[in-house]
Amino acid sequence: MSNSIFLKDGTAQGVAKQRLIETLASPEKRVIDDPYAERFVLGASLLKLMGHKASIWLTRKFVPGFHEHLISRTRFIDDLIEKGAATGTEQYVILGAGYDMRAHRLNLPSSIKVFEVDQVEVQTKKRSKLSLELPNSKNIAYVCVDFNHQSLTEQLLAAGFDRNKSTVFTLEGVSQYITKEALNSTVQELAKLTENTTSTFFLSYVNQLLEDDPKACFGRGYPNAVRRAEMIKRLSAKFGEPWISFYTAEEIKTLLSENGFTLKENKSLADLNTEYFSPVGRTLPEEQIFKLEHFVIAKT
Ligand SMILES: C[S@@+](CC[C@H](N)C(=O)[O-])C[C@H]1O[C@@H](n2cnc3c(N)ncnc32)[C@H](O)[C@@H]1O
């Protein structure tokens, strides 16, 4: 159990904070837009006062590339969901949704049913900050599941999940917080839930190299890579939840293929830097690249 001062929603707040910082950039400079992030972030007013540039500068002082890494992850999934929406996705399941507001901020067709899944404490806190008039509110079902101790299937079906509808699942920034057994059984459940239809699965994972060879998880010349790798793990445990599970690319590929998924993409900030940040004049130099987490898309 977390002994964090944020009581379970620390990691969800951490990601929402970076989305808020990105949203403070001018429209022609930003890579994603999340006008709702501020309502979940402790100290949001101070960040707004500081603005995008100063907030980025400060984040970079602690962990260069951390902000851009999280924003590239967000954008990568935004693109996936928007592409899916345009090509017939009927259900979208956000696993470990935290303060993800895609259901409201992306212009999804009302025909897509969204399921947000998270631990009860985080979901209750999130819902207390939502108002009914938010776009697309009627299409969202909230499902409480602790992946470490509960099965997803029963709760999803009870919330109206349809086994015959084409579905996108996302598990963003979660696999490092749950046991390998929990990830295994969750992927098995996703495969079984959609055995009659097609599904797309986004999964992010932290590279085993963070434990074995931390320098390899950062761009060449990254300052104090080993010390920073330790600091990142320490801060996550202190302000959120500890990282307990790390994976090799091979492990992930095997996990997916054993459950009928074919891996289509495996990216990190190193790959997405020029795609997302160069067009807005913000290309990160090699020595600020943070690539310890990978973004995977798989399909059945
Ligand atoms: C880093 S946050 C990511 C939130 C969201 N996916 C995003 O990217 O904004 C991790 C999320 O995983 C959820 N989580 C962690 N352990 C979990 C568990 N055992 N069962 C269900 N959700 C869990 C947390 O509550 C939190 O919302």
Q: How many DSSP E strands?
A: 7
Overall tally of structural domains: 1
Which ligands, by name, code or SMILES, are bound?
S-adenosylmethionine
Q: Which residues sit in consecutive blocks of at least 5 with pLDDT less than 50?
A: none
- The N- and C-terminal alpha carbons lie at a distance of 34 Å
Radius of gyration: 18 Å
Features:
300 residues; alpha/beta; Rossmann fold; seven-stranded mixed sheet; 7 strands; 42% helix; 14% strand; binds S-adenosylmethionine
Structure commentary:
This protein starts with 9 loop residues before the first helix and ends with a strand. With 300 residues, the protein is α/β, with parallel strands linked by helices. The radius of gyration is 18 Å and the shape is globular. Helix content is 42%, strand content 14%. The mean pLDDT is 95. Strands 3-2-1-4-5-7-6 form a seven-stranded mixed β-sheet, sandwiched between helices. The chain has helices at residues 10-23, 44-62, 66-86, 102-105, 120-127, 152-158, 180-193, 209-212, 225-239, 249-258, 269-277; strands at 91-95, 113-118, 140-144, 167-171, 199-206, 262-267, 293-299. Helix 3 packs across helix 11 (269-277). The protein is built from eleven helices and seven strands. It has one domain: Rossmann fold (3-Layer(aba) Sandwich), CATH 3.40.50.150.
Give a quick rundown of the structure.
This protein has helices at residues 10-23, 44-62, 66-86, 102-105, 120-127, 152-158, 180-193, 209-212, 225-239, 249-258, 269-277; strands at 91-95, 113-118, 140-144, 167-171, 199-206, 262-267, 293-299.
